[in-house]
Each structure stands twice: as C-alpha cells, then as structure tokens.
Amino acid sequence: MNDSFYAELADKSLNGERLTDAECKQVLNTDSDNLLPLLNAAFKVRQTYFNRDVSIHILNNAKNGHCPEDCSYCVQAKSSDTDITDYPMKTEDEIMLEAKSAYESGAFRYCMVFAGRGPSKKRVEKLSNLVRKIKETYPIQVCLSPGLIDDADAEQLKDAGLDRLNHNLNTSETMYEKICSTHTYQDRLNTLKSAQKAGLETCSGMIVGMGESAEDIIEVAMKLRDLKSPSIPVNFYMPIEGAPLAENVDPFKELSPERCLKILCLMRFLNPEAEIRAAAGREIHLRSMQGLALYPANSLFMDGYLNTKGSNMEGTLQMIKDAGFKPKTDFNLDALLNAAKSKESDLRDPLLADGEVILKRKEDLSPFSA
Ligand code: SF4
Known about the structure:
Layout: H1 3-14, H2 21-28, H3 35-50, E1 53-63, H4 92-104, E2 109-114, H5 121-137, E3 141-145, H6 151-159, E4 164-166, H7 173-179, H8 185-197, E5 201-203, E6 206-208, H9 214-227, E7 231-236, H10 244-248, H11 251-254, H12 257-270, E8 275-278, H13 282-286, E9 299-301, H14 313-322, E10 326-327, H15 333-343, H16 362-365
Parallel strand pairs: 1-2, 1-9, 1-10, 2-3, 3-4, 4-5, 6-7, 7-8, 8-9
Bound molecules: iron/sulfur cluster.
C-alpha cells in the first residue's frame, strides 16, 4: 500500500462513493508504516466537514441499573453481577443542575441515558417535559438515550424539542444474538426508524472489541452509512468484572491503539459527514495515541461514561489543545482549561489508565444529589 492508495480512499469518500469491502479490509489491515498516510487521508475528509472542531459530550447516567435486558457487555443488565450503584430516575432539579454544569464546562451536547428496555408512556411524558425545560434554559444540544421507543414516543420527544436520540446498533446483525437475547437487532433498527420518521437526528454507533470480525465491523459501518446516522459513537469495549461478556472475551487482545485508529478511519471514510466519536474506552485502549483519534474523529466524551471513569475535564481539554484542535463551545478554551484545573480534585492521568477500568462512585454518578 502506498500514500496514493489512502489519498484515493479520501477522494472516494469525499465524492460520496462507497469503499469496496476489499478496500475496507485494507484499511483495517494497514501496517504501522502506513498509519500516518491513513490518518492523513481520514483527516482530509474530517477537515472538509468539521475543520479542527471537536464536539464534546457530557453523559448523565440519569437512571442506573435494574434493567430487565441481558446485554452481556453491560453492567446494568439483569445478568450482570457487577456491584454498581443502582438508583431510579434522578430528580428534575438534579438533572437541571447537571445540564447547567455541562453547558458551563464547554460541552456542546448533554446526553441523558436511562437504563432499561424502554420507557413507559408516563416516562415519555416526563422525559418530554424535562427536555423542554432544558432547552428553554440552556443553549445546549440535548440527546436522549431512552431505550426502545415507538413512533408515538418519538413524535412526542421531537415536539418537546429533543435534538437527538441515541440508540446504538452495537454490533452486526449476525453477531447480535451472541450479545443479547432479550431484544433483537431489528428492534434496535425499528427504534432508529421511528426516531428518523419523527424528524429526530439519530446517534447510533457500535462497540468494538467484543469478539467481532473485520466483516462485522465493516457491516456495521456500512449499515450506519445506509441509515445516514449523523452521529456515530465508536466505543471500545471495557471489560468489567461481573458482566458476562467480560468472562468470555479479552478486548485487549483484539484492540491495539493502532487497531482503534484504523476502525475510526474506516468509519470516517464510510460516513464522511457524520460526527464520529472516539467514545467509551478511548483512555484504556488508545492510551498514549488518544490525540491521534482526533484526526478521523471529531467528537469525544468529556469525563467518563455510564458506570466507569474516563479522562477528566482537564485531561480532555488539554489533549484537544495540545493536538491543535478546538472544542465547539461558546467559551474560550484556555478559560475552560483553567477552570477545569482549579476544579479537579482527584486528577487522574488518562495515560496511566493502562487497562484499568475504574467504576464510578456514588458522588461521581450523582454529583448534585441531595
Ligand atoms: S438495555 Fe441498555 S441498560 Fe439494559 S442491559 Fe442493555 S445496554 Fe444495559
């Protein structure tokens, strides 16, 4: 492979052409000598649509645990023995305070995630009121991850002002039954279709490192292209003791930092205009290569995930600054960085994470609880 091969992939992507399966495989099999030409080509596509902007997302785990589903990678599943802090839906006041904090920290988008199969009609009503209130109070984009929903739920949420609905495909159709038996890949697709029908933007991505093949990764990337998902989180599987999948797969054997970068580049070539997020697990899988993820990806989570810690505000903002990118926010990056520095109490160097998955404590999950 030479530089011109990767440059041609970038041109194909920018021209709206789909890469062939063989080209996708070549991307995933890129050797170390060609990693920079690959990243450079993916950056050309990223830069065309997003310049050097980075969208920072902050997650609010608004309801934790008690999920009747059995997604084997998830610590909130009924099949998981992980000792997590369960709680029902946070109060409106608490969620509003977290939205304020997310906005003032420089987040472009505030994402609320609710564990469970899907919301009741009563819960959809409650969520709609909450979304309306956040949108009236803060100029921040709101994303909701409520589980499976139908057309009527999607319309109600859209009417309330919801910007985006998250529902990940997670893996390929063929792999799906290996990771979950309580709902199907088609159920997930139906939720995404309901959201799109209602005019909601969708956020849908995958988890890599769960034992999938290169073909599975290509299949999901192609499916997301077909769905025209404007937002694609690529999560790197974080094995947590107690979750069934953690006993069966070793993502550290499957995912090297280079492999993670190649997957992000493939996702970029196949989805040139999508917001691609180097999502959960970037710290432990990309490690010292995290800054390079910004060449194909244009989005990150600021400070951790649903049940696990990640980098912190200072680490994320500093990485963006050091790599020469800039967060998409109303605030000045240096001011945000100084504020983050003065706030960090348990500063954790993300580069020291090295395979260690750290569960969040109650005070991390619910910083404004009474
Ligand atoms: S539906 Fe969501 S919260 Fe429930 S087990 Fe699956 S991933 Fe976890």
